[in-house]
Amino acid sequence: MLPPIKEVALHHGLKMNDRLSKSEKDVRFKCPFCSHKYQKKKYHLSLNTRDNVFKCWSCGESGGVLKFIALLENTSIEEVKARLFGSTPNIQLHPAEKLTPGQLKEIGFEPINWSGLRQSNPALYRNTLSWVWREWQLHARFLKRFGYMSFLAVNSPQERQAVCREYAQRLGIDPQSLMMEYVQARFKKPQPEYLRGAEQLLDALKKKGAKVYA
C-alpha cells in the first residue's frame, strides 16, 4: 500500500496552509522543488489526497507519491519502491535505475517505471538502460566540468563550498569528495580529461564579460 501523500509531506517538514486548502482532498504546502526564493515562500504545491498525487502551480513539478518521495529524498523511484515494498530477490539495480527524477529530468527523461519495463519488455528495458546511462555519463562530465569552472570563478571558501554542494547534489555524490577532486585538479598534471581546457575556457568567458556562476 502506498503511503498517504499528505503524511509524506508532513513527515518531511513541509509547511501546510490550512486557509488555502480547499478541502481535505486538496491541501496546499510550500513547494520545496521551486528554485526561486520568492516562489519557495508561496503555497503553490497542491496535494490531492484522494488520488495521492501532487502538482506545483509555480514550477510545474508533478507526479505520484513515489516520485514525490524520491524528489524529497533525492533518490530514485526504484530505490523508494525497494524500501517500501522490499527488493526483488537476485535483482541488483543498474546505475541508471538509481538516477533520481531530477537527474532524469536534466537529461530529458520523465521518471521511468524500470521494474514494469523489465517485466513487460526485457529487450526494451536493456536498451533503455544503456541509452539513459550513456546520456547521464555525458551529462555528468559536463556538470563536473562546468562545476569546476564555477569553482574557479568564485573567490571565497564559502562560495566554493556552495558550488560543490550544488553540483554534488545534481551529480548525486558527496560534496567533500567533489571539493577534493576540484582542489587536486588545479595542481594535478595532467588534469583529468574532462577538465582539460576548462581554465582557458573560463578565461575566455571572463574576457567577454560572461558570468559563470551567480
UniProtKB/TrEMBL annotation:
Residues in Zinc finger CHC2-type domain copies: 19-84
Pfam families linked to this entry: Zn_ribbon_DnaG
UniProt cross-references to SUPFAM superfamilies, sorted A to Z: Zinc beta-ribbon (SSF57783)
Gene Ontology biological process terms from the UniProt entry: DNA replication
GO MF terms held by the record: DNA binding; DNA-directed RNA polymerase activity; zinc ion binding
Matches recorded under InterPro entries: DNA_primase_Znf_CHC2, Znf_CHC2
Protein name: Zinc finger CHC2-type domain-containing protein
